[in-house]
């Protein structure tokens, strides 16, 4: 019985504590600013600093919802914040780290009227928020930005309705088939240009115990990209035609692509359990020379060059025959779409927020160009390059002028089709899913639009 | 006595705090779900009333049927596994003569205590087709039974159910143990003096006395299974394809990936009704009279 | 009694094996927290670490706000346990033992809370919290946590109250005790094992809760451990050992709590036999 009373006593004590806790809440709300400052400083590491004596220049605080998870997303953010401090010292950013949740948190923010001043928006967020009035039309604030955009990247700035809703930084990125030159040479395998050669390569590598193609199919977009690579050999528009409802998956161009993939998967093209492989695992296979090919965006060049050096190459996608290969080889899967930093229409000073959003996007592009060696950014950069382009990037930049692109799955405009093709393409990678299943699942989503 | 237990003021005082809070914070949003399921709505913009169209669409959507099937498989597996093992362990541990029962009692609950993320990460490693422990075990005993546990379109849901069944068995064990403990010793002693074997005594005395606990365990396992989400979310993202979707997962996809909040609400509303029916059936099947000692 | 121990050797061995299988994840997690990436993924995913990298703990504790997250989790979980159990035990008693017309309906009504997927009511819930002006305070988590645990706790207590003999209340009534007195000094002690069990369950639920915290908390100073862990995951994509250390730190309180209160369940033995 003693223990029990003890528990009760401690319970009442905590009750008292709870009461203190709630009175603290009120205090906290009154002093919310200082609390937020602390949080912002903390998250943005060393970049936020003196927040006390800047009242003379009328300091402004903006809430920003941005990706800030790994090197790839932290680097540009920290760089942009540091630059912002130099250019507009009176503006302070309070970072709210973006969750990996298909936009659930951002939509909840919108529904509760708690949207941050500046947020990262993709095409799906733009089209949803456009309808509900949760995104500011940036047309009148975009003149300076427009002057700096690469002509080829105009598609990432202006949406289909002719308006601007977000300042892009990514440019037209593409998915690529990388390969390990040494593995192909050592095993006497020809870099495939046709489906038959691809099948021969798959068989040859499997015989040697080498994984033919590493794919991180736990994420769905690489599976869509693989399907799109095959489909765009037959029709240069690739999945974008399905997205717009101008073609059906049952059309021969699209059905044969599924059939070829199923054949290759059944022959053992992908590693065991590919649909549960994450990026780290799939990349490790390729980087350690255990896989001959690897599918990823061009942003992979940096990491793969570090791991493989001169051995790294990229190939054009194999097609049905040599003629088809030649005619379609400069069609790349992927491409950019509208997206980037957007502004909340309810923000106190829209002009300032838009200015800051544009500034950050420009600095993102600058960082990626100068530090990460990627020429594929939305805006022109005149700062000197710090890390020079790797050889594969040099080679790719020669293809860029005559390159045609389709879309990544995140750039698709019909959300219902997007969800369906993502699920169906991932199923294709299991080998236990027939091309007919694929056709009927995808077409169901297209027709119900 | 009737008057004593029918004290209106006391009843009101006892039920009001819970009832109020629950109604406002849980039930009101549920009503919203049912209401929103009648609309074509993306969660933000203006909603369009479409009556029962979302429900009609549900019955032509094969993802819905996959989800329904998976939820049922999941629920049945975890109910059977958790309650059976939970019962056996609870009986064993309540046995004063059992060696190290304290150790057993504490350890079987450990998986429950760990967060679901930790447990899922562990099983992702265990199931891995290349270097996973499970395939290695099969190899060690000489079976060439290598499997891609989580990426096979037919086994994936079973592999997920196994993880959940294993992790939350301890819940049922703890509930049943608490139940066994509150049965006065004298009953078992009386039965044993009558010459019944231990197992028989449990079957005849303990289990019927635990009827209410069993009822609760069943409801918990079934509704938990039908609602399954976290295992899929962490381990397979519903894949490969849509093969490990459950109704909750489908709702999540519709509402947030596709932006069809109304349609997602319809599948959630269906789920709530489904669970309610299952609960009512379980209530009917298991005697509800209070046991009189 | 001795014969009993010898009677079931096989089942005893099986139980012991099962117990070991249950400890394994704990061992795995602690081992994980002391390894480096190479060991975790390739060379030694399941075994004992070759070197004890205690540095992982230092990294985990210092590079993020772990002490703050920890405090927040404790406050939120403890308050949730106290209120949801108090409300639930009162409600369950009224429904299980007292005589009123709608008691059955009230119980079923309460059950519905168990099968509402929290994801779908997130938006209405977020709006509700805003309208109550609870956003950005501890209460924005505590209030939903209490409410969501009511269904579960009520049903457990209901089950226990139903299995208590009626003659106890009759005796108390004849002795002239008020209904409140009967409840507090006769009924509560009897269901002690279930209260101990529920303290563990509700604490666990609140401690590990993730989706609501994710949606409703944006202030760094209010983040709970699971939320902090999520951002760890980004921070440490290159350092999984530190991630393991953070997970271990986050699991400790729940383990200790369980060991403490499962003792209560055990001690109930004496109460159970004393009642009759």
Automatic annotation (TrEMBL), chain A:
Residues 23-55 are annotated as: Disordered. It holds the Pfam family SBP_bac_1. Residues 1-18 form the signal peptide. Keywords: Signal, Transport. InterPro entries: Bact_solute-bd_prot1 (IPR050490), SBP (IPR006059). It is found in: Cell envelope. Its main location: other. The keyword Hydrolase does not apply. GO terms for cellular component: cell envelope. Belongs to the bacterial solute-binding protein 1 family. This is Raffinose/stachyose/melibiose transport system substrate-binding protein. It comes from Paenibacillus taihuensis. The lineage of its organism: Bacteria, Bacillati, Bacillota, Bacilli, Bacillales.
UniProtKB/TrEMBL annotation, chain B:
The keyword Transport applies. It holds the Pfam family BPD_transp_1. Belongs to the binding-protein-dependent transport system permease family. Keywords: Cell membrane, Membrane, Transmembrane, Transmembrane helix, Transport. Gene3D superfamilies: MetI-like (1.10.3720.10). This is Raffinose/stachyose/melibiose transport system permease protein. GO terms for biological process: transmembrane transport. It is a multi-pass membrane protein. Residues 68-282 form the ABC transmembrane type-1 domain. It is found in: Cell membrane. It comes from Paenibacillus taihuensis.
From TrEMBL, chain C:
Its main location: membrane. It comes from the Bacteria. Pfam families: BPD_transp_1 (PF00528). Residues 70-261 form the ABC transmembrane type-1 domain. One of its GO terms (biological process) is transmembrane transport. It is found in: Cell membrane. GO terms for cellular component: plasma membrane. It is a multi-pass membrane protein. The chain crosses the membrane at residues 12-34, 74-96, 108-129, 141-161, 182-207, 240-261. The keyword Coiled coil does not apply. This is Raffinose/stachyose/melibiose transport system permease protein.
């Amino acid at each position: 019985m003693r223990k029990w009373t003890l528990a009760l006593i401690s319970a009442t004590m905590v009750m008292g504590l709870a009461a203190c806790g709630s009175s603290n809440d009120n205090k906290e709300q009154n002093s919310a600013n200082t609390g937020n400052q602390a949080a912002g400083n903390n998250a943005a590491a060393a970049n936020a600093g003196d927040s006390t004596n800047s009242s003379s220049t009328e300091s402004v605080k903006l809430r920003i919802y941005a990706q800030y998870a790994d090197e790839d997303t932290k680097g540009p953010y920290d760089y942009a914040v540091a630059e912002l401090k130099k250019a507009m010292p009176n503006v302070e950013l309070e970072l709210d780290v973006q969750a990996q949740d298909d936009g659930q948190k951002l939509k909840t923010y919108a529904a509760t009227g708690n949207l941050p001043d500046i947020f990262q928006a993709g095409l799906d967020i733009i089209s949803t928020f456009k309808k509900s009035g949760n995104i500011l039309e940036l047309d009148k604030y975009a003149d300076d930005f427009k002057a700096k955009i690469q002509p080829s990247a105009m598609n990432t700035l202006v949406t289909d309705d002719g308006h601007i809703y977000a300042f892009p930084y990514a440019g037209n990125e593409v998915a690529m088939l990388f390969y390990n030159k040494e593995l192909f040479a050592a095993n006497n395998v020809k870099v495939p240009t046709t489906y038959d050669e691809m099948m021969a390569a798959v068989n040859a590598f499997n015989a040697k115990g080498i994984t033919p193609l590493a794919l991180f199919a736990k994420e769905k977009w690489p599976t869509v990209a693989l399907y799109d690579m095959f489909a765009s050999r037959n029709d240069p528009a690739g999945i974008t035609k399905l997205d717009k409802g101008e073609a059906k998956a049952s059309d021969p161009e699209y059905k044969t692509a599924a059939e070829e993939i199923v054949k290759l998967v059944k022959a053992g093209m992908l590693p065991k359990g590919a649909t549960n492989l994450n990026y780290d695992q799939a990349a490790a296979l390729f980087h350690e020379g255990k896989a001959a090919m690897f599918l990823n965006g061009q942003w992979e060049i940096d990491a793969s060059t570090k791991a493989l050096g001169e051995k790294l190459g990229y190939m054009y996608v194999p097609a049905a025959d040599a003629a088809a290969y030649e005619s379609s080889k400069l069609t790349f899967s992927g491409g950019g779409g509208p997206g980037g930093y957007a502004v909340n229409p309810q923000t106190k000073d829209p002009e300032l927020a838009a200015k800051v959003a544009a500034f950050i996007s420009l600095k993102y592009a600058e960082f990626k160009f100068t530090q990460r060696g990627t020429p594929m950014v939305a805006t022109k950069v005149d700062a000197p390059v710090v890390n020079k382009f790797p050889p594969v990037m040099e080679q790719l930049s020669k293809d860029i002028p005559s390159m045609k692109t389709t879309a990544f799955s995140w750039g698709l405009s019909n959300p219902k089709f997007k969800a369906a093709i993502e699920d169906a393409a991932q199923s294709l990678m299991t080998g236990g899913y027939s091309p007919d299943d694929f056709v009927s699942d995808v077409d169901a989503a297209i027709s119900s639009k | 006595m009737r008057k004593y237990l029918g004290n209106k003021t006391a009843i009101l005082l006892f039920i009001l705090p819970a009832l109020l809070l629950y109604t406002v914070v849980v039930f009101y949003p549920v009503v919203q779900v049912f209401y929103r399921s009648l609309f074509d709505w993306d969660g933000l913009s203006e909603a369009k009333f479409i009556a029962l169209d979302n429900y009609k669409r549900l019955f032509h959507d094969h993802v819905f049927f996959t989800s329904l099937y998976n939820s049922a498989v999941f629920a049945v597996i975890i109910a059977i596994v958790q309650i059976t093992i939970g019962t056996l362990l609870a009986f064993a541990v309540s046995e004063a003569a059992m060696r190290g029962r304290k150790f057993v009692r504490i350890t079987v609950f450990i998986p429950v205590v760990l967060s679901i993320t930790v447990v899922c990460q562990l099983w992702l490693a265990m199931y891995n087709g290349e270097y996973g422990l499970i395939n290695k075990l099969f190899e060690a005993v000489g079976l060439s039974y290598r499997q891609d546990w989580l990426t096979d379109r037919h086994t994936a849901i079973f592999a997920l159910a196994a993880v959940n069944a294993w992790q939350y068995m301890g819940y049922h064990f703890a509930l049943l143990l608490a139940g066994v403990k509150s049965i006065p010793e004298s009953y078992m002693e009386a039965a044993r003096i009558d010459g019944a074997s231990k197992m028989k005594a449990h079957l005849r005395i303990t289990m019927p006395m635990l009827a209410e606990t069993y009822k609760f365990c069943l409801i918990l396992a079934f509704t938990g299974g039908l609602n399954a989400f976290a295992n899929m979310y962490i381990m397979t993202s519903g894949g490969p394809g849509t093969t490990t979707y459950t109704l909750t997962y489908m709702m999540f996809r519709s509402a947030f990936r596709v932006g069809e909040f109304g349609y997602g609400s319809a599948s959630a509303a269906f789920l709530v009704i489904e669970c309610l029916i299952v609960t009512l059936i379980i209530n009917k099947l298991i005697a509800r009279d209070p046991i009189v000692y | 009694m001795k014969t009993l121990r010898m009677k079931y050797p096989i089942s005893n061995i099986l139980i012991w094996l099962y117990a070991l299988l249950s400890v394994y994840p704990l061992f795995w997690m602690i081992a994980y927290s002391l390894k480096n990436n190479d060991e975790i993924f390739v060379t030694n995913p399941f075994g004992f670490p070759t070197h004890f990298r205690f540095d992982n703990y230092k990294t985990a504790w210092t590079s993020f706000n772990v002490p703050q997250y920890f405090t927040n989790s404790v406050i939120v979980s403890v308050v949730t346990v106290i209120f949801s159990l108090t409300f639930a035990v009162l409600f369950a008693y009224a429904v299980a033992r007292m005589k009123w017309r709608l008691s059955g309906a009230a119980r079923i009504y309460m059950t519905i809370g168990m099968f509402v997927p929290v994801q779908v009511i997130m938006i209405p819930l977020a709006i509700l919290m805003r309208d109550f002006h609870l956003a950005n305070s501890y209460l924005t988590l505590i209030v939903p946590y209490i409410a969501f645990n009511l269904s579960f706790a009520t049903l457990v207590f209901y089950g226990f109250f139903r299995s208590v003999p009626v003659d106890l209340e009759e005796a108390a009534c004849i002795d002239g005790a008020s209904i409140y007195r009967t409840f507090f000094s006769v009924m509560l002690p009897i269901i002690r094992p279930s209260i101990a069990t529920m303290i563990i369950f509700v604490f666990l639920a609140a401690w590990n809760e993730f989706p609501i915290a994710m949606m409703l908390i944006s202030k760094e100073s209010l983040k709970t451990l699971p939320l902090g862990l999520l951002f760890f995951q980004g921070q440490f994509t290159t350092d999984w050992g530190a991630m393991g250390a953070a997970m271990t730190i986050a699991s400790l309180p729940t383990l200790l709590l369980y060991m403490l209160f499962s003792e209560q369940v055990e001690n109930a033995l004496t109460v159970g036999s004393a009642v009759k």
